[in-house]
Amino acid sequence: MHAFLHEKTVVVTGAAGFLGSHLCDRLLDAGSTVIGVDNFITGRRENLAHLEKNEAFTFIEADVNSEPQSYLKDSIPDVVLHFASPASPPRYQEHPTETYLVNSYATHLLLSFLKKVNPQARFLFAGTSEAYGDPAVHPQPETYWGNVNPNGIRSCYDEAKRMGETVCGVFHRDMGMDTRIVRIFNTYGPRMNPADGRVIPNFVMQALRGEAVTIYGDGTQTRSYCFVDDLVSGILTFLVHPDLAGETLNIGNPEEFTILETAREIEKIVGEVIHTFESLPGDDPMRRQPDISKAKRLLGWEPKVTFGEGLQQTIEYFRTQLDS
Ligand code: UDP
Questions:
Q1: pLDDT by residue (tens digit) across 135-149?
Q2: Which residues line ligand 1 (CB under 6 A)?
Q3: Which atom of ligand 1 is nearest to the CA of 288?
C-alpha cells in the first residue's frame, strides 16, 4: 500500500468529514502529500485540527460543486478520493440540492479536470449501500442493481450516488480513465458527528445522557456496521491495487443486527437504556448486509474489529462530545 501512495499528491474531498478525516490520516502515514477540501456543510474543523502543523497536509475551504481549477489552482493530483457529501439521512434531506450536485455534477467536474491535467490519475468515488435501496436481494452483492425510489425522500442521495457511479463508468469505459467505486455500508467510529442523526450517534448520545433511545418503526429492520479503521483499510487496499480500474466493490462488515439488537449492544457497554418508539421514516430500507466475497477475493480484505470492540472505542469518543 505504502509504495503506491508514497510521495503521491492525493486530493480528498470531504476531508473534514468522518471518513474523509480518517482517510487523510492514513494517506499521510503512507507518505502521501494530501490536499483536503471541504466546505463544512457537514464536516467539522475539529476533525482536522490535529493536522494543522503537518507539512504534508494542505487544507482548502471550498465547495467542490465549483470548478476544481478555481480551488486546486496549479496542483496536479495523482489520486482523487471523492468523499464530499452529506451522508446522514436527516442531513442530506436538509441539503438536497447540494447533495445531488456533489455526487453527480462534482464527480463530473473532478473527472473532467483530471482528464485535462492528469489522465493517468486514479479516481475513487465514495458510493453507497443506498444504491441498493430497499433491497429485494439479501445480502447485497455488487451485481444487484437495487430497488430505489427515484423520487422519494432518500433519492437526493441514493439516486445521485448512482449517477456518480454512472459518471465514473463513462470516464472509465469511454475515456480510459482509472475510476473505482467503493460502495460503503453503514460505518461508525470516532469523529462521527454526535448530532448527525444516524442510529449509532443517536443511540449512544441518548444513552450517555440518560435519555430514551429513539427506535424508528418496530426496530426489526437491520443494518450491518463496519468500524471505521476496517473500512479505511479496505478502501485503501482497493485504491492501491494495480489492476482494479473500473471496478465496483462493497466494503462493509457483514455482521447484521436489528435496530433493537443495536440498542442492546450499546446497553451492554453503557448500562440499561430505555426505548421509545417513533414512526419509521419513508423509504427506510428493511434489511442491509454487504456481500463482501468480491473484496475478500480481490483484495484479501475482511473486517477484523467486532461490533463490541468498535462500540467501546466509539462510545469513549462520544463521551468526550457530551457537552456539544
Ligand atoms: N434509526 C432509529 N433511530 C434513530 C436513528 C435511526 O431507529 O434514532 C434507524 C433508521 O430508521 C434506520 C436505521 O436506524 O432503519 C439506520 O439509520 P441511519 O440513519 O443510521 O442510516 P441508514 O442506514 O438508514 O442510511
A1: 999 999 999 999 999
A2: 88-89, 186, 198-199, 202, 214-216, 221, 223, 259, 280-281, 284
A3: 23
DSSP H or E segment with residue 215: strand 213-216
pTM of the model: 0.97
β pairing state of 9-13 and 79-82: parallel
Rounded CA separation 288/208 (Å): 27
Q: Which atom of ligand 1 is nearest to the CA of 221?
A: 15
Structurally, the chain folds into a number of domains equal to 1
Question: How far, in Å, is the centroid of ligand 1 from the Cα of 267?
Answer: 17
CA 1 / ligand 1 centre spacing (Å): 34
Q: Which residues are catalytic?
A: 157
Q: pLDDT tens digits for 62-73?
A: 999 999 999 999
Query: Residue 299 belongs to what domain range?
Result: 2-189+227-254+291-304
**Domain annotation covers residue 278:** no
Q: Residue-wise over 145-154: b if at least 16 C-beta within 10 A, else e?
A: ebebeeeeeb
Nearest-CA residue for atom 14 of ligand 1:
199
Per-residue confidence (pLDDT) for residue 181, from 0 to 100? 99
Distance CA 22, CA 231 (A): 10
- Give the closest residue (by CA) to ligand 1 atom 10: 216
Residue 199 forms part of a structural domain? no
pLDDT at 323: 79
pLDDT value of position 133: 96
Bridge-based pairing of strands 256-258 and 222-224 is: antiparallel
- Mean pLDDT, the chain, whole residue set: 97
* Contact present, 79 and 111 (Cβ < 8 Å): no
> From ligand 1's centre to the CA of 104, what distance in Å?
24
> Whose alpha carbon is nearest atom 13 of ligand 1?
199
Does 324 score more than 70 pLDDT?
Answer: no
- pLDDT of 263 > 60? The answer is yes
Could you tell me if residue 261 is inside a domain? no
**Per-residue pLDDT tens digits for 45-84:** 999 999 999 999 999 999 999 999 999 999 999 999 999 9
